[in-house]
Write a structure and sequence with these properties.
Rossmann fold, pyruvate-formate lyase- activating enzyme, binds iron/sulfur cluster, 3 domains, five-stranded mixed barrel, about 425 residues, alpha/beta, globular
């Protein structure tokens, strides 16, 4: 039987899709690239914004249209957070949440024998442990993602994730070391540690993110370790000092900001203010040479006045981010902010997004310009056009260079000679 996987959403979803695919291929299924040729189509969904839900519906319809006979499985955060709505999506033959991925294979086999629609969404249990998942190979990827943490206990007022993902659960250290060993043995030079609230790793098992970083840096053949999105307030001076002792840790920190205005941060139930954020950035830049600070900024949060937005804009300019994901606030049913007064109009959200993107595109270009003249090791990912290879430096600067030989999968020192809008040019 042929199976194809469509992944929507974050690095954790990408990891889980890989793990589910491995679960099925080790049971005799064959991985397939297209819905048309598949017997089973697996859609791993995201529900972080209203647009994500819209994409889930679109993806389902398209898969059903392209392959009316396929067994379509809808899984992931959307059914877990909104089970009733997911049950209504009849293009899916099997609807599975994200708390019991081990049911995937039994549910598919059950459906194939009964042809009875299956809705198998199990609520997250408070005391649930980390669902064992192991990935040793990533198809068509140069770097390997490792999911080490799931769930979140934060309940930021706009966020649906704690409802979709449950409470913090961490991968036991022995499982993590085994997985890193297998990934190293399969020739990956870079691993990316990821989680739903990565900074919370280990808090319920007496471990800490630093322990996971040290474990990931241990294998000789692993050259680089990168961290997924982080919550600022976990990065104390001690933690930064301990992390800086790991020479393989990439100097790129995605430090989720959300707003550069303290009043807005308070209404978001974020656990830091702009002064604390500024200090963490200063400490990271002092501890890691040529560090890149990247982030997420939300515009149009309920009650955000023009004055508050201006503060957020000025703060983004002051910090000088290397890259910013700008997105407009999206109402999520069940979250506190969904019912908050002062909802912002779509027109104002779009206008503020444009202004924030304009400012942060400039800070990105300024960061790229500061790379000119530096010689940096680049992990090349692919040949993007004939004789031109693209990859990333340790601080995640995208670099393109000419080469007569293949550079894919190799780490090669490159001198940065030019900075363009979205990448740099380098010479060997
Ligand atoms: S820290 Fe906040 S924004 Fe991040 S997943 Fe948890 S609740 Fe959502």
């Amino acid at each position: 039987m042929k199976v194809s996987v469509i992944t929507l959403g974050c690095k954790v979803n990408q990891y889980e899709s890989q793990a589910m695919l491995s679960q099925l291929t080790s049971a005799g299924f064959c991985a397939c690239d297209t819905e048309e040729e598949s017997d089973v189509v697996l859609i791993n969904s995201c529900t972080v914004t209203a647009m994500s839900d819209h994409k889930v519906r679109q993806t389902l319809h398209r898969a059903r249209r392209k392959n009316p006979d396929a067994v379509i499985v809808l899984t992931g955060c959307m059914p877990q957070a909104f089970p009733e709505a997911a049950e209504e999506l009849h293009d899916a033959d099997i609807v599975l949440g994200n708390s019991n991925r081990s049911s995937l294979l039994p549910d598919i086999l059950k459906y194939l024998s009964s042809r009875q629609r299956i809705v198998d969404i199990v609520p997250h249990e408070k005391a649930a442990g980390f669902e064992a998942m192991n990935v040793s190979r990533f198809y068509e990827r140069t770097r390997a993602f490792i999911k080490i943490e799931d769930g979140c206990n934060r309940f930021c007022s706009y966020c649906i994730i704690p409802y979709a993902r449950g409470r913090v659960r961490s991968k036991p250290m022995d499982e993590l070391k085994k997985e890193i060993g297998e990934i190293a043995a399969n020739g990956y030079r870079e691993v990316v540690l990821t989680g739903i609230n990565l900074s919370a790793y280990g808090q319920e098992i007496g471990m800490h993110l630093c322990d996971a970083v040290e474990a990931a840096c241990a294998p000789k053949s692993i050259a680089r370790v990168r961290l997924g999105s982080l919550e600022p307030e976990q990065l104390s001076e001690d933690v930064i000092a301990r992390l800086s002792r790991q020479k393989k840790l990439c100097a790129q920190f995605h430090l989720s900001l959300q707003s550069g205005c303290d009043e807005t941060l308070r209404r978001m139930n974020r656990h830091y203010n702009t002064d604390e954020y500024r200090t963490i950035v200063k400490n990271l830049r002092a501890a890691f040479q040529n560090a890149a600070i990247t982030t997420d900024i939300m515009v149009g949060f309920p009650g955000e006045t023009e004055e508050e937005f201006q503060k957020s804009l000025d703060f983004a300019k002051e910090i000088g981010f290397a890259k910013v994901h700008v997105f407009a606030y999206s109402r999520r049913p069940g979250t506190k902010a969904n019912d908050a007064p002062g909802q912002i109009t779509q027109a104002v959200k779009e206008q503020r997004s444009r202004r924030m993107i304009e400012v942060t595109q400039k800070t990105k270009e300024d960061f790229f310009t500061r790379q000119i003249g530096l010689t940096e090791p680049v992990l090349f990912e692919r040949e993007c056009e004939k004789g031109v290879y693209e990859g990333y430096t340790e601080n995640y600067t995208p670099v393109k260079t000419h080469s007569g030989e293949s550079l894919s999968g190799r780490i090669v020192p490159v001198k940065i000679t030019q900075a363009l809008n979205d990448f740099c040019i380098g010479e060997r």
